[in-house]
Amino acid sequence: MEQKQSEGAVSGATIYDVARVAGVSAMTVSRVVNGSAQVTAVTRDKVMAAVESLNYQVNFAARAARVGTLRVGLLYSNPSESFLSALLVGAMDQCGQMGAQLILERCTDLRSQRAAIGKLIASGADGILVPPPLCDTKSALKQLDEIGMPTVAVATGRPSPGVSAVRIDDYEGALTMTRHLLSLGHKDIGFIKGDPKHTPAQMRYQAFLDGMAEAGLEVPPERVADGLFTYRSGLAAARQLLGQAKRPTAIFASNDDMAAAVVAVAHGMHLQLPEELTICGFDDTPVATTVWPELTTIHQPIGDMARAAVDLLVDQIRRRRVGEPPVVQHKLLPYTLVKRESATATRRK
């Protein structure tokens, strides 16, 4: 009994108690709490319900003694603080659930990218998560592949065939938003592009153009502004679009940070929102509900994507430790159109 207790919980309940309540084997419970991908969603839900009802807490010290500490590296260089915040919360939460340590390294260019990867390796990282825009940087993925480092790309628009990835369909998400604006009667729509190095930014822009063409509408060059996914770049883009003699009736920004910047510029111009200007974003990060009016946006489940990415990476690490070949997996999570107060029907005929 003493040995069983050491494998189980510090709360008193054991892995065998959880197995009995869930109606599964102790091995299945072990797979679930260790984050194995070889468990069905139904079984995982049963086990997690039993875990919660019994207040079962995994003894991470005992686990580390058995299988060794797992260290998950995260290499980041994302200009959107809102996106990065949501990503980190999800990654930290899942690492905590799986008894893994999360190690962070930031890079800004090719030179610092190589140095950051070296630091993660020196810190004992067993695998590395690569969020945007680095997930679309061939040099970063090549460097990780050359050293045989387990890698998972997060939020890439075009996943590499040889690299596991978690993403949404950015093209369909942006097309859904464009069609929504058109359904509200908007025909004169401005668009703010994202970082050109990021494939989802390219796909969102293409989807906007295709959606407008689908409605028989052309997009004049002056209705498109460059952005970098940052709030500051959104301010410049908003001034460009709203400083024209004839303003668009709606602006679709490639992410919420830039959409929030449009809201700020519009308020500074004393425009009535959304009556005089509809504003929409993408991602549904916390900033979408901290501005007024709250943003209509496409919900990208960033936290869930980070959790799924950690799950895939830990599975790769464990396979590597026991000598099993890696399995490349591409997970596509659903997006949602979230309608809030920043969008309404146009008054312009």
Automatic annotation (TrEMBL):
Q: What is the name of the protein in this document?
A: Transcriptional regulator, LacI family
Q: Domain HTH lacI-type, which positions?
A: 13-67
A GO molecular function assigned to this protein is:
transcription cis-regulatory region binding
Pfam families, per the entry = LacI, Peripla_BP_3
Write the record's keywords in alphabetical order, separated by commas. DNA-binding, Transcription, Transcription regulation
User: Per the record's keyword annotation, is Hydrolase included, yes or no?
Assistant: no
Q: Any coiled-coil ranges, and where?
A: none
